[in-house]
Specification:
three-stranded mixed β-sheet, alpha/beta, Hect, E3 ligase catalytic domain fold, 18 strands, four-stranded parallel β-sheet, Rossmann fold, 16 helices, 3 domains, 499 residues, single chain, elongated
């Protein structure tokens, strides 16, 4: 019994190797089996896999059957379905010979490939197949270069803010203001999660919903600077980019694009130009997770309080707390962290560990990015998604190292307890924002003298602990509460090392 092997390098188009449909190949193999009287079992089709490598899932399973004696050989439509690499073909042929296995072609001369003449013919066929593969690859690179130089965006993906014209170039559509607003707000410091929530309201994705990662990927695209580009495999030049920086109208300026790549920052002053309160932008109501505003009580006391009514609906438990009490509590926590950080050793084991992990993650990212075989196997979309996973790991470790370096930098710069207290309010706010994402406050169960202690009502989410979907004012979001019981307050994540 022989194994019928069907392979197609690219199902979705006719670029690359010559497209021979799986049905045509299978029919020819069955006709050959009937004509020769040989029993053939058609294996599952190998789709979207190049013949330039012998490491293919279905082919590997056939070779395992041959090694175990469950199959007596392979029959293919043409020899180039078996391999397009001379070295790979000859090496595999040697293994087939070691197991007394057969290689047959359903449409080419029926030669005995165990004889010198048959082997010579087979090698000539593989040499020609490898030549054709290389020629087609170089032709694709040339075609890609010519298209990009004409301004054609050859990626099959659709992009917010653009339609594809009849000539293949991108043309701005009526979503341009939405794109410009996303870049502007990201440059102003809004989080990816906030932007994703808003995009789902005004510009739903055709293939799902916007996530923080999807918005981050959108803002990283240089197409919004008017560029078309492509990485291609070229036999002569190797792997390299083809870039046209004026392929289509840009939707954002270079400054706007660069600003969107930066980390968000907390504003220093309000609309009046006066310094904002110490916890402005950091303090949130646990009943609805919205930011709390500053107000005055009946005796003129300064308060942080929930607005209660939001674009998304009504807060079920609006919180209110004295400004002095919550600020003293939070600053007490920060001063404790500063005191603890003064014990840090600049070249701590944790920093060395973070550096080592980051170097390993970057190495794995680079190895995957340069792995041509894996890229060909996965296809462009799956390969890009996998690459994003590696990149996310690098970004997470970079953030961790950034936090460690920030803490070590505080020690080196001499930010002691007294030095912190001598800072103006806006600079103390920056220090707080460097330590924490936000602080949640819940409504007191008692009133007057029976009001709950501030330490029981406040929970700090340190850097990296806040959810990505925190709501914004004047934007419709689902009203959800923050659950104190699910959150155990801890110190700054990377402030554990001590001398």
């Amino acid at each position: 019994m022989l194994s019928g092997y069907v392979r197609v390098s690219k199902v979705g188009g006719r670029e690359g190797e010559g497209f021979i449909s799986p049905d045509v190949q299978e029919r020819a193999i069955r006709d050959w089996a009937k004509r020769t009287g040989v029993d053939v079992v058609i294996e599952p089709h190998e789709l979207n896999v190049s013949g330039g490598t012998m490491d293919r899932p279905i082919f590997n399973s056939i070779m395992e059957k041959i090694r175990s004696g469950k199959s007596e050989g392979i029959v293919v439509y043409k020899l180039d379905r078996f391999a397009r690499s001379l070295l790979g073909a000859v090496t595999t042929m040697a293994e087939l010979g070691a197991h007394d296995a057969v290689l047959a072609s359903a449409t080419e001369p029926e030669l005995d490939y165990t004889t010198p003449a048959g082997r010579a013919f087979m090698q000539q066929m593989f040499v020609f197949a490898e030549f054709v593969r290389g020629t087609l690859k170089e032709s694709w690179a040339t075609a890609a270069r010519n298209a990009i130089e004409r301004g054609v965006h050859i990626s099959p993906n659709a992009y917010l803010g653009y339609d594809r014209g009849s000539d293949g170039r991108l043309v701005p559509n009526d979503q341009v203001p939405i794109v410009a607003e996303v870049f502007r707000r990201r440059g102003a410091g809004e989080t990816w999660g906030q932007l994703a929530d808003d995009l789902n309201d005004v510009a739903r994705k055709s293939d799902g919903t916007w996530t923080a990662q999807a918005v981050q990927r959108l803002c990283s695209k240089r197409i919004y600077r008017g560029e078309a580009s492509r990485y291609v495999e070229q036999d002569i030049d190797g792997r390299g980019p083809i870039i046209n920086r004026n392929a289509h109208p840009a939707l954002v300026t270079e400054d706007e694009w660069q600003a969107a790549q930066m980390r968000p920052r907390i504003s220093k002053v309000g609309t009046s130009g006066k310094p904002l309160p110490l916890l402005s932008g950091l303090i949130r109501c646990s009943g609805c997770r919205y930011s709390m505003s500053v107000g005055r009580g009946p005796k003129g006391e300064r308060l942080y309080r929930c607005r209660a009514k939001h674009a998304s609906g009504k807060c079920p438990e609006p919180a209110m707390i004295l400004g002095d009490s919550i600020e003293q509590h939070i600053e007490g926590l920060i001063l404790g962290e500063i005191d603890g950080m003064m014990k840090l050793v600049p070249d701590s084991q944790e920093r060395d560990r973070a550096l080592s992990e980051l170097a390993q993650a970057r190495s794995e990212y680079d190895d995957f990015r340069r792995d041509r075989e894996t890229r060909r196997k996965l296809g462009p979309d799956d390969w890009q998604d996998s690459l994003d996973v590696y990149l996310a790991a690098v970004r997470a470790l970079e953030t961790q190292l950034e936090i460690i370096d920030q803490q070590i930098g505080v020690v080196r710069e001499g930010l002691t307890r007294d030095a912190y207290l001598d800072l103006p309010v806006e600079e103390r706010r920056e220090v707080l924002a460097g330590f924490m994402d936000c602080v949640f406050v819940r409504r007191s169960r008692g009133r007057g003298r029976n009001v709950d202690p501030v330490e029981d009502r406040a929970r700090v989410l340190w850097r990296g602990q806040a959810p990505a979907d925190l709501p914004r004012r004047r934007v419709v979001n689902e009203i959800r509460s923050f659950d104190f019981e699910d959150h155990v307050e801890a110190g700054v994540p990377a402030a554990q090392d001590s001398a």
